[in-house]
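ok so for the tutorial part 2 we go from a plain amino acid sequence to predicted structure tokens. step 1 is just haveing the sequence, like this:
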Amino acid sequence: MSLEVVAASTDRYLTTTAAVKALVLGATATSTVEDAYLSDLILRASAWAERYVGYKLSAEKVLERLPAFGTGRVVLSR
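step 2 — the prediction. this is what the tokens look like for a chain of 78 residues:
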């Protein structure tokens, strides 16, 4: 059994600044300095979350090879 990442995600942000502004701040208009600060916070929080769970949370394409036993059921590792 092997798991291989075929196409890794290039997106390191798990949300957008617009989503954070709307949900947390209740605002849509902020300065570019505030947007850059929020973007940095999102990047740091995203990296922390991925370290915490131990794997990438953004979408990636994987290929898993499993031994076949002739049944109609397949159990994937992730």
